[in-house]
Design a protein that fits this description.
The chain is mainly α. It is built from 18 helices and 6 strands. It is elongated.
C-alpha cells in the first residue's frame, strides 16, 4: 500500500506541474481574436495575408526564429535585410504591419491554433425555415467574475488549511517518537513530494486563460477581467485538487495520531455481517460446502456448485427489462424521439426562443428592416462602439488607414443604412471582420448610423469604391 500511495502522489505532482502548460495552447484562439483578427484571417487573405501554414513557410526558408522578430518589429526586420521572407511579403499591403507586444509563448499558442484551425461547415439557409437569424450568445462576464471570486476565495482557504495541516504534521514527525522513522524516510517522502508539488504550482505566475481589458477596449457594462467558462472549469479543477491534497494530509495526520493514541476498534456484530453477505452473494457457509461439492475433480481440486450472486442476477434481469422497454418506446411505438429527431426539435424551439427574445428586447433588427437612427443618445452610443472596435483600421474620425475612408462619398459595398449594417454584421471579403459575435443588432444599428453622419475628413488613402452622392 505504501508503494502504491507514493506512486499516486508522484502522479499528482507530475499532473500539477504539467497542467498549466497544457492549458497554454487553448489560449491561442483568444489571442488571435484579440491581436490578429482585425487584419488577418486564418485561411483567407484579407487586409493582411492568411496565416494558416505561415510558420511552416518561414521554417522552410530557414528563418523560423525571424518570424518572431517580424511580429515584434516588421519595419525594422525589413530595413535590416536579414530576412528574405520579410522582403517578399513587404509589398502585400501598402500599410506597414504595426509592432505587436506579445511573448514568444503567446505567438506559439497563436500558431498552434492557426495550424489546427478548420473552417466552419456551411449551413444551407433552406434548412432553417423557421428563422434565418443567427445569434451568438455572449458569455455573462459579470456573473462569471463573481463565480471566479468565489473559487478564488475557496482556493485561498484550502491553501491556508493545507499549510496549517502540513505544519501540524511536520511538528508531529519532529517529535522524539518519530525520529527513527524520519531517519528511514518511510513517512517523509509523501510530504516532500507534496511540498515540491506546491512549489511548482506557485512558480508558474503567468495567466493563460484570463483576458484583462486594455484601455479603450472596455465599456461601462464590461468588467475589468473577462472570465470565460474554461477559466472557471480550470479554477474548479485546481480547487478540487487542493481539496484532495488537504484530505490526503488529513489522512496522514490521523494515521500518525493513531500510532500515538490507537483508536478503539468498533466491532460490528458478526451476525449482521453474515446476514448481509448471505443476502448479497447467496454463498453457502463453509461447514455446509460439502452439500454443493461437485463430482468433477482435477489434480485433487474439486468444484463448488455455487449460485450466481443475487445482485448480478437481478442486474441482468433489469437490463433485459430495460432493453424491452427501450425497444418499444423508441422503435416500436415511437413514443419518445430518437437523438436526431430530438435535436431537430430542440433547434426549432431554440430558434423560436431567440426570435421571442429579440422581439421582447426590441432587437429584432437585421439588414432587411434596419432604419437610420438620428437620436443623440443612439449616436453617442454608436460613437462609443466605434471608438472601441473600429478606430484601429478606420482612425478615430473615420478618415481611414488600414480600412477605407468612411467620410467621403466613395463606398465599396454601398452607402445605404442596410448595406452598412450588413457589412458590419457579417464582414466583407477584403479584410472587414464580422461583428455579429461582438455586438447585438441594436448596437450594430447605432454604430452604422454613427458612421453615416461622420463629417468629411481628407484621408491619406485614395478614394475606394464607387462615388455616391449623398
Amino acid at each position: 500500500m505504501n508503494i502504491m500511495r507514493n506512486k499516486f502522489i508522484r502522479w499528482i505532482a507530475i499532473f500539477t506541474f504539467t497542467l498549466p502548460f497544457s492549458l497554454a495552447g487553448q489560449d491561442g484562439k483568444q489571442l488571435f481574436k484579440s491581436r490578429c483578427n482585425t487584419c488577418h484571417m486564418e485561411d483567407k487573405n484579407g487586409t493582411g495575408p492568411k496565416l494558416m501554414g505561415v510558420k511552416a513557410k518561414w521554417e522552410a526558408a530557414q528563418e523560423g526564429e525571424l518570424i518572431y522578430k517580424w511580429v515584434e518589429n516588421s519595419a525594422g526586420l525589413i530595413v535590416s535585410g536579414e530576412s528574405k521572407m520579410a522582403t517578399q511579403i513587404k509589398d502585400y499591403s501598402p500599410t506597414v504591419m504595426p509592432n505587436q507586444t506579445v511573448t514568444k509563448g503567446e505567438l506559439d499558442a497563436i500558431f498552434t491554433y492557426i495550424d489546427s484551425y478548420s473552417p466552419a461547415i456551411a449551413v444551407n439557409p433552406n434548412d432553417l425555415k423557421t428563422n434565418k437569424k443567427t445569434v451568438k450568445i455572449i458569455p455573462n462576464y459579470v456573473s462569471n467574475l463573481e463565480v471566479f471570486y468565489g473559487f478564488l476565495v475557496l482556493g485561498i482557504i484550502l491553501i491556508i488549511a493545507i499549510l496549517i495541516m502540513s505544519a501540524s504534521i511536520i511538528s508531529l514527525i519532529k517529535s522524539d517518537f518519530f525520529k527513527e522513522k524520519i531517519a528511514k524516510g518511510s513517512h517523509l517522502l509523501p510530504i516532500i513530494i507534496l511540498i515540491i508539488t506546491f512549489g511548482l504550482m506557485g512558480s508558474n505566475s503567468q495567466v493563460y486563460g484570463f483576458n484583462f481589458m486594455s484601455y479603450g477596449e472596455t465599456t461601462e457594462k464590461m468588467p475589468w477581467l473577462l472570465v470565460e467558462k474554461t477559466d472557471l472549469y480550470f479554477l474548479l479543477a485546481i480547487d478540487l485538487l487542493l481539496l484532495g491534497v488537504l484530505l490526503y494530509l488529513r489522512a496522514i495526520f490521523k494515521r500518525f495520531m493513531t500510532m500515538i493514541l490507537p483508536e478503539k476498534e468498533v466491532k460490528v456484530p458478526k451476525k449482521v455481517l453474515e446476514k448481509f453477505n448471505a443476502i448479497l452473494t447467496d454463498t453457502v457457509p463453509i461447514e455446509l460446502e460439502h452439500q454443493i461439492l461437485m463430482d468433477h475433480e482435477y489434480d485433487g481440486i474439486r468444484e463448488l456448485d455455487n449460485n450466481l450472486p443475487p445482485w448480478w442476477t437481478w442486474g441482468f434481469i433489469a437490463t433485459i427489462v430495460f432493453a424491452v422497454i427501450y425497444l418499444f418506446n423508441y422503435h416500436v411505438i415511437g413514443y419518445s424521439d430518437l437523438q436526431i429527431k430530438a435535436y431537430d426539435k430542440e433547434v426549432i424551439q431554440a430558434n423560436r426562443d431567440i426570435k421571442a427574445y429579440l422581439y421582447q428586447n426590441a432587437m429584432n433588427v437585421d439588414e432587411t428592416n434596419v432604419k437610420l437612427l438620428i437620436a443623440p443618445d443612439d449616436l453617442a452610443k454608436g460613437k462609443e462602439i466605434f471608438n472601441t472596435n473600429c478606430i484601429l483600421c478606420h482612425k478615430k474620425t473615420g478618415e481611414g488607414d488600414v480600412g477605407p475612408n468612411l467620410t467621403d462619398k466613395a463606398w465599396i459595398y454601398g452607402f445605404d443604412i442596410k448595406d452598412v449594417f450588413y457589412s458590419i454584421k457579417n464582414g466583407q471579403p477584403n479584410g472587414m471582420p464580422e461583428h455579429a459575435s461582438k455586438l447585438n443588432p441594436v448596437e450594430i444599428q447605432q454604430v452604422s448610423s454613427y458612421v453615416l453622419q461622420l463629417p468629411f475628413i481628407q484621408g491619406t488613402k485614395p478614394a475606394q469604391g464607387d462615388k455616391i452622392e449623398k
